[in-house]
Amino acid sequence: MLGCTTNNPAVRRYITRTAIAMSIYLILTFATVTIFVHFHPAGWLVYPLAVLPALPIIGMLAVIRLYLKEEKDEVVRTVFVETLLWAIGATLASTTVWGFLENFTHVPHLDLYMVFPIFWAFYALIAPFSSRRYR
Question: What is the Cα–Cα distance from 6 to 18, expressed in whole angstroms?
Answer without folding.
Answer: 15
